[in-house]
Specification:
Shape: globular
Structural class: alpha+beta
Largest sheet: 2 strands, antiparallel
Number of strands: 4
Strand order of the largest sheet: 1-2
Helix content: 10-25%
Strand content: 15-25%
Distance between the termini: 16 Å
Order of helices and strands: EEEEHH
């Protein structure tokens, strides 16, 4: 479900804090992604304390609900 807000980003590059691998990922438009497995080292990432999803913690763009100013979860 994409909306008509042109400034909302639906792709984010996640960087693994363990090995530095970067991966461009498509974000869910209206929900969180709580886990992400690094394709480089297999590290299973989950959000840092205070963040709703892995994109908000490790991505170059926060998730779409947060970009809109809404609570994600």
């Amino acid at each position: 479900m994409k909306d008509d807000q042109p400034n909302i980003k639906y792709e984010s590059t996640i960087t693994c804090p363990q090995c530095g691998t970067c991966s461009k990922e498509t974000m869910p438009a209206d929900s969180c992604q709580y886990f992400w497995e690094c394709p480089g080292c297999g590290n299973l990432l989950k959000p840092e304390k205070g963040d709703c999803c892995v994109f908000c913690s490790f991505g170059d763009h926060p998730c779409p609900p947060v970009q809109r100013g809404n609570s994600c979860c």
